[in-house]
Amino acid sequence: MNDLNYKNKKLQFAKADILTIAKKHKTPFFLYSEKILTQNYLSFSNGALAAGLIDPLICFAMKSNPNKELVKILAKLGSGADIVSGGELKRALEAGIPAEKIVFSGVGKTEEEIIFALKLKGKGLNSFNVESIEELELINLCAKKLKRTARICFRLNPVVKPKTHKFISTGNKTHKFGLLEKDIISTLGDKKYWSHSSLVGLSVHIGSQLLDLKATKKALERLCEVALKTNMPIEFLDVGGGLGVDYHPNETHKLPRIDTYMEIIATTLEKHFYSKSKLKPRVVFEPGRRIVAKAGIFVMKVLRNKISEENHFVIVDGGMNDFMRPSLYDAYHALIPVKEAKASKECHIVGPICETSDCFGSNRLLPELKSGDLIILKDTGAYGYSMGSNYNLRGRPLELLMDQNKKLKVINKAQDYSDLT
Ligand code: LLP
What we know:
Blueprint: E1 4-7, E2 10-13, E3 16-17, H1 18-24, E4 29-33, H2 34-50, E5 57-61, H3 68-76, E6 80-83, H4 86-94, E7 102-104, H5 111-118, E8 127-130, H6 133-146, E9 150-155, H7 181-188, E10 197-203, H8 214-230, E11 236-238, H9 258-272, E12 282-285, H10 289-292, E13 296-308, E14 311-316, H11 325-329, E15 335-337, E16 345-350, E17 359-366, E18 374-377, E19 398-402, E20 408-412
Helix pairs in contact: 2-9, 5-6, 8-9
Bound molecules: ligand LLP.
């Protein structure tokens, strides 16, 4: 179980005793480990260096977990940020990420957000990762008004089909993301787009939770082909994010290792770009899940049991408003009791929300769980708190961080009734 182990029959996360923490803090809560977060970031960035990639820039995908304390840790390690809103831009800057390490993705950037980004001091953002021609037009216009030059990166839609859940697949032309090659090329010959903009890079991001890298390789080849065709002095190739994690034990044998992933990128870029060009663009990454998913767990308390003939429900105090992935994508997350005991019952672990999909796991074989017992949902550091809501007018949960010295810090207070205005 790696970072989750029983000691004296009590579950520990990154060597911290969960029962002890839950005595001091009200459930449900997210608990993160600085040590795991740091290890994940370093293995990613060191992997890129070890594969010989040119001047790699890791832009953490803030949407996966924008908690300021966590982003501060990554900023200190040298991380940049992949952002998709003015809110994420503000957060990234506050956490200490310099503007020149920020890429601004997203199909729906507003004029206000574009102006906010263009007004930043110094060189400004690393790039606006542009997803439509109208967006390019607007950015150029805003830059003109502000007397700036916008750094543009085109997000290519490479028209590939990765193996992942259809809701998080983004690399085909039926998806709203990225621009087709011909549309990218057509803008280059038209001066009206470029009076206050310059093309500095190309990017690709074909989806999330990718365990099979065949489509990734294809997308990179397409990225290189288009980069060569633009015949522009681009400064970087942005290979996106998407590298998956093993949520289910059956996924462990499929999990791409960081060195394998980096090797695929290095060899593909070498064969299809560097060997054919005088340019040496740096490589930009946008990982989210691989950095933060395994750095967090979600701790819940059992409220009560309910037996409806053959259906045994264990009702917990965390709900789909706190952690949405199982209800939204039917995603599997391991459920682990905090007190070690023999698994004896198949049950459904459900939350208090008035939706049948408010279920963290069906037919899970678990020990008997009584009111007051604790249970954790594993691998919830990514797309957990960030996708949460106040649905059913429930307060957002607490976020706790175990730092490198095993000191526990509240990094986001739980909301109470007075916050629910
Ligand atoms: N770059 C772009 C442009 C993206 O849209 C995303 C994720 C990433 C990078 C980071 O992808 P990652 O390395 O984390 O896979 N809520 C879903 C995931 C949505 C991903 C959206 N975009 C989930 O819980 O599975």
